[in-house]
Amino acid sequence: MPDEIAGMLTRRAALVTAFGSRLLARPAATPSTPVDLFHEGDDGVNTYRIPTRIETRKGTLLAVVDARHDSARDLPAKISLVLRTSRDHGNSWSRAVTIRQVPEGGVGDASLLLDRRTGRVWCFHSYGPPGIGFGTAQPGERTGLTTFQFHAMFSDNDGTTWSEPRDLTPQIKDPSWQAMFATSGTHIQTGAGRYLVPMVVRDAQGIVSSRNAYSDDAGKTWRIGAAIGPGTDESKCVELSGGVILQNMRNGPTRAIALSNDGGVTFGPVTHDNALIDPTCNAGITRYLHKHRDLLLFTNAASTKRENLTLKISADQGKTWITSRVLHGGPAAYSTVLALRDRSVAVMYECGETSPYARIRFVGFSLE
Fold this sequence. Notes:
This protein has two helices and 25 strands. It is mainly beta.
């Protein structure tokens, strides 16, 4: 980054400290007033969880979440996937519609990926047959009634309709593994066109680790990369300048970091970013690239427990974090962050007053 840009950002960071985080407070086309998209009890649903969001090539915002009908529990509880859309930068939203439900078991933990070349939006998610979740799945099969499954469907019309779901599990699961699932949130297509979907795998020995599933033919076939490090969990990846993939992972009281030079298949040593305090929770990361700005934006519950949802900014590819803004100081959990086409930034996150899972909120900011 040129010295004058770095200097400008440093001066702005100082102003943030002095004047109460006003760097991100200017009006944007995206609403700067938080909008609660899902609230516990709406439409008879016990709890909405797992925020997932993407912007299409036409500028439509898609927000997909778990509708956890009977309780807040994970799969194999009764869960379906519901969608709300916005065609005006998040100022107004459609009613929630169900995009997938199953008669038995459940589906959940959705993630979204945009193919920039075709405009196709992919929705990856888990399917748990009756009684099967990440903790109860069994080894011995690539897929089946005792397997926690990795499914995908897509939309070519901005979320209006979706393809039939496809079971990708047989392509990437080692039969000896006990279970695997895709990390929820927003995923990326690299500059070379590769789809990267971060996975969590519990192997034959019961060791949990982060990996990436990847496709080099627009989702027709899939492979899975090497384990990044034992004890790593839900993760997000971002492509840095030069094509390096940075993986940011859930792993104890601070975020684990690893770098890949082969497109997210294998990684170097795992380190920890002590500036990114984390309560062992899913988080969000994205690259903001415009004109002379090359920033990383990171969101998480920046505390030792699930609270204090915070947005942080780095101007040196994640080496340091120059400024931050608390979006919700109370209970909070999962989040996802996205740089939009109008150059604003939108964050979607779980929060509440007494519980981190009371609502799922959307808010936008301008970095100008």
